[in-house]
């Protein structure tokens, strides 16, 4: 929503204020790493209050987009996420927090130069493998 209502310079000022200097690429796009940084900031409530972080994560968990990472998860697993699509550049990204039974984790997958159907399958496969590893992991 920020990107739709503010100029790149204004967004950079917000990120600078939050301690996230050089957050955006020079053309205003976000990298996969930056998506992950934002998810971690929400998960740890390190930039906004815990109450507001929880509200945002609740909204993100209600996303109607269930085709990418979420399609590799079990149906009852909560997933707070944000997707990004650039059809003209053939880029698809999904980034979020998976609330697995024993622990939560952040997963971000960005696919470039594949069509949407191939991207969906790749993301679902990666997500399923990571989820099964985390779910079955014993310390």
CATH topology heading of the domain at 63-136: Double Stranded RNA Binding Domain
Main pleated-sheet profile:
3 strands, antiparallel
Known CATH architecture of the domain at 63-136? 2-Layer Sandwich
| Secondary-structure-derived class | alpha+beta
Record field, number of beta strands: 3
**Alpha carbon gyration radius:** 15 Å
Instruction: Kindly estimate the percentage of residues that lie in beta strands according to DSSP.
Output: 15-25%
GO biological process, one term: beta-lactam antibiotic catabolic process
Domain Beta-lactamase class A catalytic: 2-110
Pfam families: Beta-lactamase2 (PF13354)
GO molecular function, one term: beta-lactamase activity
Your description of this structure?
The protein is α+β, with helices and mostly antiparallel strands and 139 residues long. The chain has a domain of 74 residues: 2-Layer Sandwich (Double Stranded RNA Binding Domain). Strand 1 and strand 2 form a beta hairpin. Helix 3 packs across helix 4. The protein is globular. The termini are far apart.
């Amino acid at each position: 929503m920020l990107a739709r209502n503010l100029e790149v310079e204004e967004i950079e000022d917000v990120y600078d204020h939050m301690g996230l200097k050089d957050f955006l690429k020079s053309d205003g796009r976000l990298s996969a790493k930056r998506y992950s940084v934002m998810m971690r900031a929400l998960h740890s409530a390190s930039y906004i209050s815990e109450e507001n972080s929880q509200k945002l994560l609740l909204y993100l968990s209600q996303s109607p987009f269930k085709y990418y990472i979420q399609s590799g998860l079990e149906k009852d697993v909560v997933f707070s996420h944000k997707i990004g699509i650039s059809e003209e550049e053939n880029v698809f990204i999904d980034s979020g927090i998976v609330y697995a039974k024993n622990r939560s984790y952040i997963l971000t997958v960005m696919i470039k130069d594949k069509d949407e159907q191939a991207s969906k399958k790749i993301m679902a496969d990666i997500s399923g493998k990571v989820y099964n590893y985390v779910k079955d992991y014993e310390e």
